[in-house]
Structure formats: C-alpha cells, structure tokens
Specification:
The protein is α+β, with helices and mostly antiparallel strands and 620 residues long. The chain contains 21 helices and 22 strands. The strands form four sheets. It has a seven-stranded mixed beta sheet, with helices on both faces. Helix 3 crosses helix 5, helix 5 runs parallel beside helix 21 and helix 12 crosses helix 13.
Length: 620
C-alpha cells in the first residue's frame, strides 16, 4: 500500500470512528441531536473533501457527468434533506470502494511491472584486460562484456568463453534454468546463476531483447478491447441520462400529484447513488489488465486488451514451420553426389551459402567445419525462398531448392530421404544434392492437440520447404492442412484466402518467428511471434509474443483470453442487472439509501474481486 492509499485508509478510520461516536452520543444527548448537521459535517468533510474538490474542478473543465459529480450531488442532497448519517455513510463507503479499487489496480499493475525488474543496472566491459562498470547504453556491438554469477545479462550476445546455468524465468515464465556453453546465444534480461561468462555483444541496448520487452510492457494498456471501448462510450451517455432521470424523478411526480417534495427528492438522490457506473468503468479494464498480467507471468506478452479479446475468438491457427513447430536447428543427414565427390559437393555448397543467414546455410557451413576463404567467392546473389548463386574460383555454383533448379534450367532428381533437399549445380550441370533435416519441437504435437481441445476448428502449416518434408511433418503433428514450397508473398496470399473462409465474428492467428514472417504476422487478425529466438522484425510485427519458443504456450494464451472474457461478461451482466433492479426499486421508493450504497460500492467491490481472478494464472 502506497502513501496515498495509507492516507485514505486513515481518513476512512477517523471518519468511521466519528460517525459511530456521533450516532452513539445522539442516542443519549439532546444537545448532539440539536447540532446533528454540524456534527455529521465533520466526518463528511474529512472523508469527502477530495471528491467534492474533484467534482468542482471537473465541472470547471466541462467534465460534468462523472462519479465525483454524482456522489457530491447525492450526499450533499441527503444532508439537506435531513439524512445526515446516510449522506456521510454513502461518502465513506464510496471511499472504501475507491481504496479497494486502487489496491486492486496496483496489484494488477505490479504483476506486469514485475517484468521491469529484468532491466539491467550495469554492464562489465572488458577494455585492455581490465573490467569497467558502465551503463548498458554505452556498450557497442562487438564489445566484450563479463557477466559474473548472480548478475543480469545486460545485452544480447554470443558466449566467447565460459559455461553456466541461466535463469530465464523473468522472460519465459519457465522455472527450469537453461545450461549455456561457449558459442551459445544469450539474451538480455536473464540471470547468470553459476559460471563467469565472457560475451561478445551482438546488439545495442536499444535493440536488445530486454529493451523491446520493456517497451511492450510500458504500452500494453494503450490498445483497448472492444468491450472496454463499449463501456467507455456507454458511461459517456449513461451518466447524463440517469442525471436527467433523477431530476425528472425529483420534479415531475410532486408537480403532477402535488406530493411530498422531500420524499421525491430523496428518491432522486438514491437514484443518483445507484446509477454511479464505477463497477463497469473500473472492473472491465481491470479484468483485461489482470489477464495481460497473468499472461505475462506465464511468459506470454500481449500488446493490448484488444488482442487478448480477439485471441479468445480464434477459429483458425496458421503456423510457419521452421523455428515455430521445428527447432530450426538443421543438420546435414545425407550427401548424394552425381559428378563430383562428397567432399567437393559439400565444399561448393558451403562456400556458395557463406553470405546467407538462413538456418540451412548455417547447417551447411557447420557440416563443412573449415575456415572459409572468402577471396574464393565472387558475384554472390541470393533469391529469397529459392537459393543462391556464386562464382567459386572459376566455377559458377548454384545451390537451392527444386524451383530454383527449374528456373536456371538444370535437370534434377528427387531424393528418397525425408528432409530439406539442397540441389547443387556446377557450371549449369547437376552435381548432386545434400539432405538437411530439422527436428520437430518436443511439445509441438501436444500443442496442436490442445488447440483442438480449445475449440480451434482448423490448423494450417505454411512453409517454403519441399512438399514431401512438409506433408511428413504435418502428418506427424496432426495438422489439418499444409501448403509447401511457398515464397513469403505466397504465405500472405494463403493467409488472406484462409481469412475469407473463417466466420465473420471469428479470428485467424498466424504463428511465426522469421524475418520473412513479418508481413504475414501483420496481415493476420492476430500475429503471434516466438520471442526467445525469433527475429526482431517478427516480434515487432506480432500482437502477442511467446517469450520461450514453445508452441504449447498458444493454448495457454487462448485459455487465459477466454477466461478473461468470461470475467468481463460476468461483471457487465452482474453490474447492469443489480443496478437496473435497485434503480427500479429506488424510483418506486422501496430501496433505501443503504440499498443504493450496495448497488454502487457493493457491486463495485464484488466486480473488482471477480476481475482480480484474471491475475491468478498458474505458470505451466
């Protein structure tokens, strides 16, 4: 509880004690009864001065119809109609509700803000054999930093020397630490638990994983869900309407029937207290905020309430293959030469692919496992989604997939091995092919199965890989449809086709991790990116980021979104139903001011308690 909340609590306690003392004293002393108004104004002023001030200030700014205005008019009116204790008590209970709301919002915000603890305080940079402690913002790409046991990893990089265990819980929600060795990538925001690590920095702080996550966290509340926007608009028209209704209730009946003005004014004041829309205005955004906070604790970052709401309505999920359903760790599993030796075929392929950053290119270079003399490589050109062409020594080497061989007019032949086939042509003549296999992620099959249990009607896989490899993986995972040998633009057109097939009130989600997935992530109704090893472009284009690379987290995210929406709808129905019933009773003179207090503060507290359930998500 912060200082402001403590001050409100002290005022509540003082006012409550004074109200009990005045009520007790008035039962035994006629003097107190004679000065009841003055006596009750003291606790009323202590507990309600800030509400009255906010109402006056907002009126001066043209913001008349808000909860401060309603409470000020209702309680002041109660005082002047002789309902002293009711007027003071309504203000007291309103402040109790506001304090409860403030604590609930603070707790929800804290669950998301806990991610801010991943921000590193410093970096140990190695210069001239000595360590200097500097700000992470002052470290450049290529610098060597030293991370001691217990320190946060300040920047993304590659381990040059050392081995350790790294705690990734703050980023991924995973409780099991990860072992890292020389040559492994490490990301900022994790904690080095055991060994000393020497790391070569690969990204400036502003482009690092931790900086991007902090930016996401700070902006999660900027994009409201449709339900939130509806409640905002509803309150904008609802409040003036009930104020007009209260005025009519106070004026028309006594004018028409010649009835008791004091009785009808009292009913109108009760009507105002009941009509305060706090339960809706607070609980609905708090539910979404709680859902986002709960998801963040499981390693799922949602960029706004609108995306959480849309995720609950997902009907079709489309997956990229490499790095999403598979590990993206390719290994050469077969070398089939035609006119040259195995070693020559591998050498030509590795040299030709040297300048490419594609995982397949890296696997060829790893298999070659020799120093590459870049002076031998000339006239390099890469065709996205197809292959590469380079002049190696005096030979023109082309390496790529089936379509690339067709484009350059080289007759190729298929391979009986399942995997990604890289064909190699030397001076326009087919020289053989190399088979590279990618390992399916351990939780991928369970992820697809769980998604279907969560009501996903169709799962689809899009890939640039060969038809045989794609269909083999899709069948093993239980995916409904597969489209293979696709260019990046083909992925977008396939997603657009699938969007046209879904129900109008449902959404399509695309899951990917690579740079070439960014256009598809942006085009889909919901873009989900793999955050741990995903590309920066994919993470920025996505609406939801999985901070580990487990596709099984998608089902968890959908479960959280559906649970959050249920809580939102429960609060809307409950608040409107109770208010409608008590408003009718208040207009008929049946409901008292105490019933009005329950319809306002009581309903708000219950709705806020219900909204807080969205925070309680078990990390899996």
């Amino acid at each position: 509880m912060n200082r402001k909340q403590k001050n409100v609590l002290i005022r509540i306690i003082i006012s409550l004690v004074l109200l009990i003392a005045i009520k007790t004293a008035s039962a035994f002393s006629e003097i107190v009864c004679d000065y009841e108004l003055i006596a009750y104004l003291i606790p009323y002023a202590i507990i309600g001065w800030d509400v009255l001030w906010k109402a006056i200030r907002n009126i001066s700014r043209g913001q008349v119809f808000d909860e401060n205005f309603l409470m000020a008019i209702a309680t002041i009116g109660a005082m002047f109609t002789g309902e002293y204790i009711e007027g003071a008590a309504v203000m007291l209970f309103y402040q109790v509700g506001e304090l409860f709301q403030s604590c609930a919002v603070g707790r929800s915000r804290k669950s998301i803000a806990s991610l801010m603890n991943i921000r590193p305080d410093h970096a140990n940079i190695e210069r001239d054999g000595k360590l200097e402690t500097v700000s992470p913002e002052d470290v450049n790409i290529g610098d060597t930093i030293v991370i001691k046991p217990g320190e946060k990893i300040p920047l993304d990089g590659v381990i040059l020397d050392g081995s350790s265990t790294v705690d990734t819980a703050a980023l991924t929600g995973e409780s099991v630490p990860r072992d890292v060795l020389t040559g492994d990538d490490v990301v900022s925001g994790c904690i080095n638990l055991s060994g000393v690590l020497k790391v070569r920095v690969t990204k400036r702080f502003g482009e690092s994983t931790v900086a991007k996550i902090l930016d996401l966290v700070e902006n999660t509340g900027s994009k409201k869900a449709k339900s939130e926007n509806f409640i905002t608009k509803f309150a904008r028209y609802y409040t003036p309407c009930v104020v007009v209704g209260a005025v009519l209730l106070a004026v028309l009946p006594p004018l028409i029937t010649g009835g008791d003005w004091a009785s009808w004014i009292h009913r109108a004041l009760i009507f105002l207290v009941i009509s305060c829309p706090c339960a809706l205005v607070i609980s609905v955004p708090l539910s979404f905020f709680g859902g986002i906070g709960g998801a963040s604790r499981c390693g799922v970052l949602v960029k706004g309430g609108n995306y959480l709401e849309a995720l609950a309505k997902t009907e079709i999920i489309v997956f990229d293959k490499t790095g999403t359903l598979t590990k993206g760790v390719f290994n050469v599993t077969a070398i089939h030469p035609d006119i040259i030796s195995e070693s020559e075929l591998l050498e030509y392929a590795a040299l030709a692919e040297h300048y490419s950053n594609h995982p397949i290119s890296r696997s060829l270079k790893d298999a070659y496992d020799r120093e590459i003399d870049t002076s031998r490589i000339n006239d390099y050109a890469e065709t996205a989604g197809r292959g590469v062409r380079a002049k190696i020594d005096s030979a023109v080497i082309c390496a790529g997939n089936n379509k690339y061989m067709d484009e350059i007019g080289v007759k190729w032949h298929p391979c009986h091995h399942v995997g990604t086939t890289v064909h190699v042509a030397v001076n326009g003549e087919y020289a053989g092919h190399i088979v590279i296999s990618d390992e399916v992620k351990s939780d991928a099959k369970d992820a697809i199965s769980n998604l279907k249990k969560h009501g996903i009607k169709k799962t689809v896989m899009l890939t640039g890989d060969s038809k045989e490899t794609a269909e083999s993986i899709a069948a093993s995972l239980g995916i409904d449809e597969v489209y293979s040998e696709l260019m990046p633009a083909d992925k977008v057109s396939n997603v657009e086709k699938l969007i046209s097939e879904k129900s109008s009130d449902k959404t399509l989600a695309f899951v990917g991790d690579g740079i070439n997935d960014a256009p598809v992530l942006a085009r889909a109704d919901i873009g989900i990116a793999m955050g741990a090893m995903g590309s920066d472009a994919a993470i920025e284009a996505a609406d939801i980021v999985l901070m580990d690379d487990k596709p099984s987290k998608i089902a968890d995210a959908i479960d959280i979104s559906k649970r959050t929406l249920r809580i939102v709808y429960q609060n809307i129905v409950f608040a409107l139903a109770v208010k409608a019933a008590v408003l009718a009773l208040g207009a008929l003179g049946i409901a008292s001011m105490w019933a009005a207090v329950f319809a306002d503060v009581g309903v708000s507290v219950i709705a806020i308690l219900n909204a807080m359930r969205a925070l309680h998500v078990k990390s899996k």
